[in-house]
Design goal:
Mean pLDDT: 91
Organism: Variovorax ginsengisoli
CATH class of the largest domain: Alpha Beta
Region (Regulatory domain): 394-512
Radius of gyration: 24 Å
CATH topology of the largest domain: TIM Barrel
Bound molecules: 3-methyl-2-oxobutanoic acid, zinc ion
Structural class: alpha/beta
Number of strands: 14
CATH superfamily of the largest domain: Aldolase class I
CATH architecture of the largest domain: Alpha-Beta Barrel
Low-confidence stretches: none
EC number: 2.3.3.13
Distance between the termini: 29 Å
Number of helices: 17
Pathway: Amino-acid biosynthesis; L-leucine biosynthesis; L-leucine from 3-methyl-2-oxobutanoate: step 1/4
Subunit structure: Homodimer.
Helix content: 25-40%
Largest sheet: 8 strands, parallel, barrel
């Protein structure tokens, strides 16, 4: 047993499966680069066989990332595994993660396969994958609700076929910490060749215990890999939160006795980037990265912290990236200060020309807003990517008229495959009129299931960040847009959601 805990981040795969959290390939690349700076050991970049878009995203990430292993998910069949291997070809270090369900319920109702068929397929899949890459992870989906004897049989067989990591998912978030920890321990004791693989935990948060269950899997079960996501993003109630598990193991090193490679200084930046990219806002009281995580409101606490900070603080805010956050840029900030800030925020730009374009937009914003916060810079960079050539729809300009007692009118100019079009409409309010103006042209038929506005940095001088969630033909996507004018931010968010609907059109049903 080693004393190193491997951090396997699946924000770009399991996290992305959260309804509305789909990301473009450029967004995935930007987050992957920050995960690499965070020194995550393994980045699960996607599920290449699920769509051409996901294949391209995994390929892009695999070609760019040098210091983390890049992983692709595949079902336990030759086609999926070959697609994953193909997407990962350019990686400095690659892993194929293959899975098949092993619980009685999933085998009978979902797969309609007998246990013996599942056993054979698991073996063949791992054998096939091992002929393509040296690093193969196997997951028995819904493992925690599987029969112990059957699970031991499957795991022994896949390790014999060369699986190097065995991941035991609590796919539906049903586990209880002590029971899950003991489950992993029993598996490790009963599988004869268990010492030939690294054991991993993968917990969902349906009962709010994903982090606690993962920690029990490590402490009681002896697992040495944790699968997790930034902000706990993921299907339904999400996955184990990376920032929480990392800070628990670091802060209580006295108890866990484990080391990790993670550079926690980038945790806040990663949380912000994922939140702004997906439109999933972080709750203020979220551990480690929530706005109130280090705020002491009561007089007694404030007094205590001023006298000795460890009276009420068990972690230092600056250790997870909070101190950098205070620096504010403005109209007079130069290109170098801007570039430095991008680096600190974990944003990597491909070329000096890209930095120049972003800097020009920063200057434009600084003309309209006296203080530019980190959130503004991240929003600006996301917006820049959203306006990428190659996207179906792009924002150009907007004008609207509203007056008390009159029905607002809006005129929106936007591009459709690079060609400018103009839409006009009235509406209940300026936002409604603007989105209807876009729809008058696009006729997407999508239903809006969420519209939210958030002041990025807290005041009325702030940029408004708008999230629009659209649903169409069983697909759900979030679009995010930011601007000091919330009507413009809304139009940008709407167009970004339409782009995502378009790019999700060919995606296969996601896994747990
Ligand atoms: O939750 C789950 O079972 C999964 C597997 C695909 C690992 O995400
Ligand atoms: Zn999962």
């Amino acid at each position: 047993m080693t004393d190193k805990l491997i951090i396997f981040d699946t924000t770009l795969r399991d996290g992305e499966q959260s309804p509305g959290a789909s990301m473009t390939k450029d967004e995935k690349l930007r987050i992957a680069r920050l995960l690499e700076r965070l020194k995550v050991d393994v980045i699960e970049a996607g599920f290449p066989a699920s769509s051409n878009g996901d294949f391209e995203a995994v390929r892009l990430v695999a070609n760019a990332i040098k210091d983390s292993t890049v992983c692709g998910l595949s079902r336990a069949n030759d086609r999926d595994i070959s697609r994953a291997a193909e997407a990962l070809k350019g990686a400095a270090s690659s892993r194929i993660h293959t899975f098949i369900a092993t619980s009685p319920l999933h085998m009978e109702k979902k797969l309609r396969m007998s246990p013996d068929e599942v056993f054979e397929q698991a073996k063949l899949a791992v054998r096939f994958a091992r002929n393509l890459v040296g690093d193969v992870e196997f997951s028995p989906e819904d493992g925690y609700r599987s029969d112990m004897d059957f699970l031991c049989r499957v795991i022994e067989a896949v390790i014999a076929e060369g699986a190097t990591t065995i991941n035991v998912p609590d796919t539906v978030g049903y586990a209880i910490p002590e029971l899950y920890g003991t489950f992993i321990k029993t598996l490790r004791e009963r599988v004869p060749n268990s010492d030939k693989a690294i054991w991993s935990v993968h917990c969902h948060n349906d009962l709010g215990m994903a982090v606690a269950n993962s920690l029990a899997g490590v402490k009681i079960g002896g697992a040495r890999q944790v699968e997790c996501t930034i902000n706990g993003l993921g299907e339904r109630a999400g996955n184990c939160s990376l920032e929480e598990i990392v800070m628990a193991v670091k802060t209580r090193r006295d108890y866990f006795g484990l080391d990790m490679g993670i550079d926690a200084q980038h945790l806040l930046a990663a949380s912000r980037m994922v939140s702004q990219t997906t439109g999933f806002v972080v709750q203020p009281n979220k551990a480690v990265v929530g706005a109130n995580a280090f705020a002491h409101a009561s007089g007694i606490h404030q007094d205590g912290v001023l006298k000795a900070r460890d009276t009420y603080e068990i972690m230092r805010a600056e250790d997870v990236g909070w101190s950098h956050n205070k620096i504010v840029l403005g109209k007079l900030s130069g290109r170098n200060a801007f570039k430095q800030r991008l680096v600190e925020l974990g944003v990597t730009m491909e070329s000096e020309a890209d930095i120049n374009t972003a800097f020009a937009r920063f200057k434009e914003l600084a003309d309209r807003k006296s203080e530019i916060f980190d959130e503004d810079i991240l929003a600006l960079v996301s917006d820049e990517e959203g306006s990428n050539v190659g996207e179906q729809f792009g924002f150009v300009s907007l004008s609207q008229h509203s007056e008390t007692g009159e029905r607002p009118q809006a005129r929106v100019v936007f591009t459709v495959q690079g060609k400018e079009v103009t839409g006009e409409s009235d509406g209940n309010g300026p936002v409604d009129a603007s989105l209807k103006a876009i729809e008058s042209h696009v006729r997407s038929g999508a239903e809006m299931v969420l519209y939210s506005v958030n002041a990025i940095s807290g005041s009325t001088e702030s940029q408004g960040e708008v999230t629009v969630r659209l649903q169409n033909a069983g697909r759900v996507v979030n679009g995010v847009g930011a601007d000091p004018d919330i009507v413009v931010a809304s139009a940008k968010a709407y167009l970004s959601a339409l782009n995502k609907l378009q790019s999700q059109a060919d995606k296969v049903v996601a896994q747990g």
